[in-house]
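Figure 2 data, in text form.
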Amino acid sequence: MNYTYQNLYENLSKIAEQNLNAIAIFDADKKISYATLKSSVDKVGAYLQSVGVKFGDKVAILVTNSQEFIVSYYAVVALGAVAVPMNTFLKFDEISYILKDCNAKLLIASNQLFKELKNLNETGIRNFIWVGGVPSRFIASSPLQREIDDEGESLYLGSGVDDDICHVNFDELLGFPHRLSGARSATLDDLCHIIYTSGTTGKPKGAMITYKNIYSNVIGVTERFKANAKDRFIVFLPMFHSFTLTTMVILPMHVGASIILIKSVFPFSNVLKQALLKRATIFLGVPAIYTAIGKAKIPWYFKWFNNIRLFICGAAPLAQQTIDDFKIKFPRARLIEGYGLSECSPVVASNLLDKQKLLSVGLPLDGYEVKIVSDEMMELPLGEVGEIIVKGDCVMRGYHNMANDETIVNGWLKTGDLGKLDDEGFIYIVDRKKDLIISKGINIYPREIEEVIYQLNAVEAAAVIGIADEHADEEVVAFIQVKEGENLDEKEIRSYLKKHLANFKIPKNIYFSEALPRNATGKVLKRILKEQIKDKI
């Protein structure tokens, strides 16, 4: 693959030079041009330089969706430093673990997250930038401290009650008097960012992603979806997530397109309103959102007057019922399923604009190889289910501070996902390897059962898990969330499942839940359900 740019700052600089007045970000009633964005990035980058951030240093970003997140991210990589976007839903112990694990030099954080950051002195970090203002606890009685350098110019040092800890208001940095200069330029093989996985078991793991990893993804997705400078990407999913960051932040910046910034997914009616008013063309969602849209009453004017040409789904496979519902609601747009994981930067595959296969996540992006293998890493015949492994420029350098021998084998990344290939190379996700249920020696795939449950109109969400019984065999258990205002009982569910599934796949126990536990991207947290079920059995 040929790469035009060596790093993201070079990319942004070129786009800003060619499209000074083009709109980079729509933020409520504000329009931020590429020239303004580049200027803000340079000023924040210059401040980071002034407090000692150097090439290769890790800078943590704990910021909610905002233009400040984008400016912070690009300011960090402008120095050749390594950005560490963090999940804004984490608690202090989780935040502290990541900050220490990556040895963060500085933290940029939203002040609204302060309640989880009260014990920052325990992290060893001495420099903090606060989006939304420095929390009152850290503000000294004196105004912003300043120091005069050798040439008589004012240096911003921030304010704080601890002499050797610096707290700065992000907005102050936009007036920083010095210029970004002398920063070492990153190359394709240098680290761009570290994405910490959600940590379904044990502590989170930091996937080290290089610029080559990022650009292989960005170029592949651009070609697959025909993205261009005229597109407008509506961004409401958390920017810290690898899928959103690559496809909805970095990709639009790469082609000179616009980002429509939505700070919160709630109320969802506002997402649809902004998509309509600002003429969004590309929409990224997760299955839970598409399921809700498919079942909701969408205003007729939105259906016919929106400009969305492409709906992209990631994070988890879509139920066939959701796809069918969606086609009726939005006949003029494409709903494209993709597949990826943080360790692959993250996109591995997607369906094509002119060719889709139901229940498939499509073909690998150009330059990537996908195989289906046995536990012994032997390639399996077409149609057989095994673990999906991936090879290509998307594969991460490895996990930070961890051995990677069991994850990356001869350049092949073991995904932990179970799937199969058809004769055209289309990928079908069957389930997560760790979610596979083995009952009486028979493999049972939870997704297959979930697909059938979703066919019931009253079902809002469903999750099927395996629970070990007293004989160490696994029993099938289902959790179901019923749509508000609907009624559904266990007898009705069992009767329906028996018409469509073999008896050994019918859940032994069915539990109803007001809301299934999910992570920031909408994935149901099955490990939490397994913990909950221990108290029920």
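Caption note: The radius of gyration is 24 Å.
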